[in-house]
Please model this.
Amino acid sequence: MKKIFYIALSIVAATLVACNEDIAVGEVDLGYLKLVESNVNFDYHGGNGKIVVDTQSPITATVATDGTWATTSVSGNTVTVTASMYTGKESRNSSVTLRAGDRSVVVPISQTSSALQLSANTLLFGKQESSQTVTFTPADAPITVTVVEADRSWLSAEVKEEGIVVSVEGNTGSERKSVVSVVFGSQEAEIAVTQATSLSTSVTALDYTYGASSKSLTFDVTDGVTVTATASESWVTPTVNMAAKTVTVAVAANDKLVARNATVTLETNGGVKANIAITQAAKPLQASDLVGNWTVEYFDYFDETYLSTQVVITRKSDTTINIAGLLGAVPTANFDATFNSNNGTVSIADRTVLNGAQAGGLPIYSGRASGTNPVVITVHSSESPLVMDTPVAQATADIWGFNVNGTTSWVFLTLHTIWTKR
Model:
């Protein structure tokens, strides 16, 4: 009886072993087939992976019908799976079925995609001959580039180590546009190319008073073109509003007695430029600008020698200054003069005033012997430091002055003097 039981048990066991059930990854058939290793997940490059099993029987490997992109080869208990390069946008999956006798193992395989991406899909060029580079990912993708045949006379594209180099010839005509096609397997992308020829502005020059202020101008460019603005001098600040296509140019106050100039340069991202000339007026000359120490130089025709003296100017009002100074050891002279800010002159009214200066030895003279014409000194505000002078043209035969030795005798001396602020 016991013998019959063992015979029946053996028949059942043999039946179970012969059952042809699929074994998922990681499951083990202790009798005939054991999955040891599976490395068959690929990136877009493709390549080789392997599946290793433990079995006592010869094995075969078959790729599922949706896995035409993969092939297998068997060596002993190792199956090599080879995947081709994948240029699609979506990942792909399949499986490999391994068989050993009546047993089988189904091993999933997969390959990720790599979407074609460009660093720029739009390029803007100026009218000059130039090139720009567009990088792409995946960086080692075997891409191809094509230019519309009709535009190949002025546009070219080439794949180089640094990326896609797009080049344009110089343009002396109207604006032109084209497209560079980029292909990576089944993926395609385009680079839109525009070669602009002009950047127009509403004005080419802006003039400002000496105070801080701002003015605006408009510009016109092709849609999609961007514009930047730079200034040649730090006292000028340009600000671009692309939405309104305007540039606001602000200037700081000019605290100098001379006008100043700068240039604002507008430039498109395609390299087209336009310059705006900026001019700011000088700060008006005021009596306070004359305050300080001066050196007065003149030629004494009586002694036939060049002389100089030191002068101090102080402000009494917007229109009146005081001049005081010495000539060598001669006592101090002190008198008032009239300042005219409109024409930048200092006038010494008449001979009576000069008589007060005579004892002080200042080389200042009345216009004529009668004392009816003032001595006019012109301030040159364009100089730094300030310079004033009395013109040689006033030194006529009937001009009289005092003796530089401080005596009361009157002699003919030149009226020409040069004043330099120290």
